[in-house]
Amino acid sequence: MEYTLNPSEQNLPRGISRRKFLEHAAGTAALSVLSSGKVLAALGQGDGSAAPHAALLRVDATKAVNSFDPDKSLGSSMDDLSIPVIQKIYTPEMVKQWLSAGWGPITYRNHTELSIEAWHWNSKGKWSDPADERGYFVGDAEPTEMIHDSFAYPLPHRGTTRDGGASGGFSRLTDGDPNTFWKSNPYLAKEFTGEDDALHPQWFVLDFLTPQEINALRIDWCEPSARVYEVQYWTGVDPMNWEAQYSPEEGLGVSQQVEGRWNSFPNGMVRDGKGGTATLKLAEQPITTRWIRVVMTQSSRQPGPHGTDDVRHRVGYAINQVYAGTMLDDGSFVDLVRHSADGTQSPTYVSSTDPYHSAADLSKRGDQTGFDLFFTSGITNDLPAMIPVAVLFSTPEDAANQIAYLKKRGYPVAWVEMGEECDGQYILPEDYAALYIQFADAIHKVVPDAKLGGPVFQGINQDVSVWPDAENRTSWFGRFLDYLKSHDHIQDLAFVSFEHYPFDPCSVNWADLYREPDVTRNCLDAFRQDGLPEGVPLMNTESALTYSLSNYMTDIFSALWLADSVGSFFLYGGSAYYHSPIQAEPLRPGCHGGWATYGNYVADANLQIHQFTAQYHTGRMINSEWVTHRSGVHRLFRVDGTVADPAGHALVTCYAVERPDDNWALLVVNKDRDNPRNIEIAFEGAGGQRGFFEGEVNMVSFGSEQYVWRSEGPQSHAEPDNPPVASKVRAGRGVPVTLPKCSVTVLRGKAQNLA
To answer: Which residues have C-beta within 8 Å of that of residue 128, sequence separation ≥ 6?
Structure first.
């Protein structure tokens, strides 16, 4: 039995023989010494006889529930990396290694917004204050020399200590320096939104970490200051936990809300703010709370430290320092805020941040791959890519120039993601929507056919809830949609994107495998229940088993999870699934001392591959056995039936596609760790007609008999470390197929009697 390599597999990873690479990349045991007959015997059906207790899986062939083209819908991603790694990975040999995993298109991830940084996608451009190289930077839209690297600039006027990404910085509100300040994003002022500032209130939240008795607040205002603002305290659970987490007790399908409310201090309303230092006695008696919030609705519109020449310096709100605690009877102020220029400061969160910065703020901590290197290296697999534009900490002009640059270069761009993890940056939906519209207008002015989307939710399992608005609406996405609709810009939402990291790295367990299909369904349904217009595709643009390293990411568990995650995503109406990341990375420690990797490979510090992970093998099976790239649209059909354990968990899940070559391919997952399971396959056509696989069927399986992860610190590895097993089997009427224990299997062949 032979297996043909794709062109991307001709160069072999260093240190791996051609035979070893073939065994892994081909995903077939036919290259080993096992004969086809021995493979069948090992699977328990060498004689083709019917085994007892076979569960019937029925493919409803009457109507496809979804359709997708793998060259548009099954991809991987490239994120922010270090400069040395960037220098290593963009070689022809390395690129071919990454592409051998089988994934099609690629999405470019923007890490700068997670770190509250401005992104210079092009180092050449213009500053709003060119003499001092500071202000608002706009990259040059005209192509000149190749853009190899692009870097980030930490924002000097940031106000958030801890965001949902990887901020690594600190807030200027509690840094103890009277000369620094936080400033809100000027693009949320009426000069840019066209709406009264009260419709886009800006705010900061101060977290004391433990409940404190509070009755006083002091604000050292910068300019522009707030003329009208209100001081509030929170009662309830954490107000900054906007993501509604899955709860087995409450059940899937329940849209949870942020539990609690903001309450006004008795003397917390200010209607005639004068700037300067304002000390407020908020209540006669202290109120016990952990969090306070200041909501600003009218600006002084006075110029700040950066001058008067730019309207962006005169709108919004700016604060040097905040202090909060108690005011004693003698008028003395007891400050309970920790002021420090590092992460030990009292945490603060803000509604937005001014993208103002200077050339001196440059950080080379991470390298966002230069666009010319990205598009010419081969990493895009000769397919249109999904690329980001910075929104939360950028300007509409810069985004427009970026898209214009790519257009002038002739690079194929399929989709443009607007911003990155806006929920993790704590921006309210109306504010994000206001920015989205401004950026969409600017981009469409230069590239009218650009397909824009977002909001790129961070690792969600279901609806994202946020503080209730005046109408008591708490759905972040629902309110975002309502804003676009009410402002006649819903047509600018060409797709909706989110990230999927479903499980906690330190508490994930085997039972989570049973949850994945329902978690996926619940997440996709939440968008529709929020009012997603029909026909707008849902895209999972970044995904992995969990958001931080865990042994489960390199265990066979990850192989079964990936198959279920991909299959259920398309079953429940998803449009594009991107598995992250594409490149190799070294093993690193994770939860409970285990060593693991996000990627498809076990690699050393020089990114040389020593082994393939379980996710690599499953990815290959999905992309080369279940579907076929460069062939066109596949149609997916529902499969009824399963094998259940005594607790009612579905041990067997199945996802059926009809491929353009008229073959049926079934992706089948057996989540029973200890036992093989027998199934029979039937295809149910119109009028109750029942068909079956005819002749021999290609069967490829990968599971715990081929791969076991050994956790041994930096020397962690898989042993055994064998490729998937390929064979020919009979799967017709009354003939069962044995699914190996703890495995992923693809069955592919022709079906009869479906006319």
So the answer is: 134, 135, 136, 137, 310, 312
